[in-house]
């Protein structure tokens, strides 16, 4: 018996059916991985919970993500970051972890918000759906930008859709600041790293990432 057959016998048919969805969701060539969350940890969690096993078995079965599948994956993600948690909602889980650490925690140590997880799951579902149809002759594959976690930029190139909504209300975003001293660089500036413009509360004023007042821009245009 080949080694792959032995592995399948050890894992069982149920886990094997879930592997395409789990592999895509936990990170592959086309879908990003969650920070600091490896595949072995995810696999063990799936093997220990039939609800999670069924969710990843269903992932990729259709081109859409059913609500019950996403709810199970959301609960799975909460446990991925905090194994013994009873919380099943990611937004609540993020808030709870942030408060438990009294704010002394990096963003990469927190689970994604519900909005971001949905886009991530849509991309994983799309990839898993392609894999599950790999033996079909000319399968009908929709465009990835048609609600599957990607979108087209102004130049028509495909890019990841990280979120469907805003990362936070404007009143909160206006309070975010960086501590750059000489220049705001993509590799160092916390504002740029989070896809935000620098504001008047940032340490460095007048950088190239600085948000511009619409009235000033309009006046400059008129002049």
Key terms:
disordered C terminus; Tesmin/TSO1-like CXC domain-containing protein; two-stranded antiparallel ribbon; globular; 223 residues; 2 strands; 10 helices; 2 domains; mainly alpha
Measured between the Cα atoms of the first and last residue, the distance is 79 Å
Assign a percent range to the helix content: 40-55%
Please state the overall shape, judged from the principal axes of the Cα atoms.
globular
Which H/E pattern describes the elements?
HHHHHHHEEHHH
Instruction: Report the total helices.
Output: 10
Largest beta sheet: strand ordering: 1-2
The major β-sheet equals: 2 strands, antiparallel
Class by helix and strand content?
Answer: mainly alpha
Low-confidence stretches: 214-223
The structural domain count equals 2
The overall strand count is: 2
Rounded average pLDDT: 88
Task: Name the beta content range.
Answer: under 5%
**What is the gyration radius calculated from CA atoms?**
21 Å
Protein name: Tesmin/TSO1-like CXC domain-containing protein
Describe, in plain words, how this protein is organized in 3D.
This is Tesmin/TSO1-like CXC domain-containing protein. The protein is mostly helical. The protein has 2 domains: 3-160, no CATH class; 166-223, no CATH class. Helices cover 46% and strands 3% of the residues. The protein has 10 helices and 2 strands. It has helices spanning 3-11, 13-25, 39-47, 50-58, 67-81, 90-100, 114-132, 170-173, 190-193, 214-222; strands spanning 150-152, 158-160. A two-stranded antiparallel sheet has the order 1-2. A hairpin with a 5-residue loop joins strand 1 (150-152) and strand 2. Helix 2 (13-25) packs across helix 4 (50-58), helix 2 (13-25) crosses helix 7 (114-132) and helix 4 packs across helix 5. It is globular, with a radius of gyration of 21 Å. The model is unreliable at 214-223 (pLDDT under 50).
């Amino acid at each position: 018996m080949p080694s792959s057959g032995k592995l399948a016998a050890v894992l069982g048919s149920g886990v094997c059916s879930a592997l395409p969805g789990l592999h895509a969701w936990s990170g592959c060539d086309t879908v990003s991985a969650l920070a600091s969350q490896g595949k072995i940890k995810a696999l063990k969690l799936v093997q220990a919970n039939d609800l999670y096993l069924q969710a990843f078995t269903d992932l990729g079965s259709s081109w859409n993500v059913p609500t019950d599948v996403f709810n199970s994956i959301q609960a799975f993600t909460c446990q991925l970051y905090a194994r013994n948690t009873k919380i099943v909602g990611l937004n609540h889980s993020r808030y709870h972890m942030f408060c438990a650490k009294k704010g002394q925690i990096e963003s990469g140590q927190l689970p994604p918000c519900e909005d971001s997880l949905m886009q991530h799951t849509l991309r994983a579902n799309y990839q898993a759906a392609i894999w599950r149809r790999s033996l079909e002759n000319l399968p009908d594959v929709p465009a990835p930008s048609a609600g599957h976690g990607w979108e087209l930029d102004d130049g028509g190139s495909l890019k990841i859709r990280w979120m469907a909504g805003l990362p936070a209300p404007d009143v909160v975003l206006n309070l975010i600041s960086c501590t750059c001293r000489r220049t705001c660089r993509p590799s160092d500036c916390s504002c740029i790293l989070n896809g935000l413009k620098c504001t008047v509360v940032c340490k460095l004023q007048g950088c190239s990432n600085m948000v511009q007042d619409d009235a000033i821009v309009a006046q400059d245009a008129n002049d």
